[in-house]
Each structure stands twice: as structure tokens, then as C-alpha cells.
Amino acid sequence: MTAPQPATKDHQPLILALPKGRILKAVTPLLEQAGLTPSDDCLGDSSRKLRFPTSNPNIDVVRVRSFDVATFVATGGAHIGICGADVLMEFDYPAIYAPLDLGIGKCRISVAQPENLPHSADEWSQWSEVRAATKYPAITRRYFAARGINANIVHLHGAMELAPMLGLSRLIVDLVDTGSTLRANGLREVETIASVTSRVIVNRTALKTRPEEITAILDTFRAACKTSLPLATV
Ligand SMILES: Nc1ncnc2c1ncn2[C@@H]1O[C@H](COP(=O)(O)OP(=O)(O)OP(=O)(O)O)[C@@H](O)[C@H]1O
Ligand SMILES: O=P(O)(O)OC[C@H]1O[C@H](OP(=O)(O)OP(=O)(O)O)[C@H](O)[C@@H]1O
């Protein structure tokens, strides 16, 4: 890649949307490898700033909630982003192209229920309705609809594991990695809906209007992934 030239009035920096939290930590070594090190205050919690320059004068980073990364990229507010496949599956935005799996943020999205209930998904074939707590209403509806079951959703934004014990729902649909959060709350995984890793995502229009710059960034991420993948796990 040729040395990046500074952005000018007529040539605005590309915006890369990153999720705060665990993915930001995991992706930092990849950003460094890709020559996109954000300014120091991007990684700390003390700054109230949300937009940061990087070591590449043509690329600025914005730090947003993980679900909002997809929305910023789909609407064109950001040209590129990094987010979990769970978020992409939930929104299914046609404006987003997800060309690169970074292999970080590995987990799965699963259905879980209290340990003391019969735990075979076969039992569900008897049901026409189920109440499920989740922050993934679309994924949950689709999953149960494919089995002929109408899912009544209790839409939460965290602590889904509390829902069955407090009578909000029979099931939850949530992310599982080690399974320790489920176990600590008397739940067990019944079925995996999908495996999840984090992807580099691109706004399709931006890819058409600024193809060389975006392809160059994708190439640097690809190269960075090859060299640092074994270290870059959440
Ligand atoms: N336990 C986990 N193990 C590995 N990856 C995870 C785990 N939980 C979440 N992820 C991945 O990290 C992404 C961000 O999750 P994180 O928990 O950091 O944010 P969040 O709490 O969902 O976001 P916010 O605080 O913005 O609502 C998820 O979309 C998923 O792809
Ligand atoms: O299987 P485990 O290794 O226990 O990981 C699963 C937990 O991780 C995520 O929560 P997170 O830690 O991000 O907290 P929050 O979403 O409730 O804020 C997810 O929502 C589960 O609660």
C-alpha cells in the first residue's frame, strides 16, 4: 500500500465504526497491524469523545454500541465497521456487505432454558407458542417460525438469564461462550442457532464510490488477520 495522503476539504476521511467493549479490545492488535492505530483516548473509558483520528490521516474511528455499528454502516454514516455476526443476522441490512471474517469474538447464539425442564428441542414440535426473552427479537422469531412456533418476545438489553427464574419467559435466546453465565443462573443450552465471529462490514454504496480506498483497507485487515489471528481472540 502506498503511504496514506492527508485528507483534504474535498476528500473527507473514511469513517470506521468500532463497537466499544470486548470487540474493541480484541480488535486493537489488528488495527495496529493494519496501520490504523486510533488515538490513545479511543481505548480508555475516560474520554467523552466519540470520534478519533487514527495513524492513517484518511481514516477516523467512531466508537459506538455494538448494535449501532451495523446501523451506522447501513445508513452510510460510517463507510466501514466491525461487528459480530449476531448483530448482522439480527438486522439483515441489504446495504451491508460483510466480506471478511476476523475470527475474533467467537461465541454462539443459542436457545437456553431452566435445567429442571425437559431439554429436548423435539418437545417443541408440540408447541404453537412460546415466550422467549432476548435482545435478538428478529433471530428468535425467525428461528421459532421455521418450526411452526409463534414466539412472543420479551425484549431485554442484558441479563436475559434472569427472565426464566423471575417468570418473564420460558426460554432465552442469547450469546454463549464458556456457558458459565448459563450455569450460574440454573440454565442449560438446548440448541445452537448459529456460530458467531466478528466481521469487517462495508457500506455497499461506499464500496462503489470509493473502491480503491476501501479495498486497500480490506487488504490490510486481511493481511493483519493472517499474521495475528492466533493472538486476537476474545
Ligand atoms: N461471551 C462472549 N464471548 C465472546 N464474544 C462475545 C460474547 N458476548 C458477546 N460477544 C460478541 O461481542 C459483541 C459485543 O458484545 P458486548 O457484550 O461487548 O457488547 P454488548 O453488551 O452487546 O453491547 P452494548 O453494551 O453496546 O449493548 C457481540 O455482538 C458478540 O458478537
Ligand atoms: O458463556 P459465557 O462465557 O458466560 O458468555 C455469555 C455471556 O456473555 C454475554 O454477556 P456480557 O458479558 O457481554 O454481558 P451483558 O451483555 O449482559 O452486558 C452474553 O450476553 C452472556 O451473558
From TrEMBL:
CDD domains xref list: PBP2_HisGs
Cellular location(s): Cytoplasm
GO terms for MF: ATP phosphoribosyltransferase activity; hydrolase activity
Residue ranges of domain ATP phosphoribosyltransferase catalytic in the record: 65-221
Highest taxon above the source species: Bacteria
Pathways per UniProt: Amino-acid biosynthesis; L-histidine biosynthesis; L-histidine from 5-phospho-alpha-D-ribose 1-diphosphate: step 1/9
Enzyme Commission identifier(s): 2.4.2.17
First and last residue of the signal peptide: none
Catalysed reaction, written as an equation: 1-(5-phospho-beta-D-ribosyl)-ATP + diphosphate = 5-phospho-alpha-D-ribose 1-diphosphate + ATP
Major place of residence: cytoplasm
UniProt entry keywords in alphabetical sequence: Amino-acid biosynthesis, ATP-binding, Cytoplasm, Glycosyltransferase, Histidine biosynthesis, Hydrolase, Nucleotide-binding, Transferase
Family of the protein in this entry: Belongs to the ATP phosphoribosyltransferase family. Short subfamily.
Free-text domain note: Lacks the C-terminal regulatory region which is replaced by HisZ.
Assembly description: Heteromultimer composed of HisG and HisZ subunits.
Functional summary from the UniProt entry: Catalyzes the condensation of ATP and 5-phosphoribose 1-diphosphate to form N'-(5'-phosphoribosyl)-ATP (PR-ATP). Has a crucial role in the pathway because the rate of histidine biosynthesis seems to be controlled primarily by regulation of HisG enzymatic activity.
PANTHER family reported in the protein's UniProt record: ATP PHOSPHORIBOSYLTRANSFERASE (PTHR21403:SF8), ATP PHOSPHORIBOSYLTRANSFERASE ATP-PRTASE (PTHR21403)
Protein name as annotated: ATP phosphoribosyltransferase
Native organism taxonomy: Bacteria, Pseudomonadati, Pseudomonadota, Alphaproteobacteria, Acetobacterales
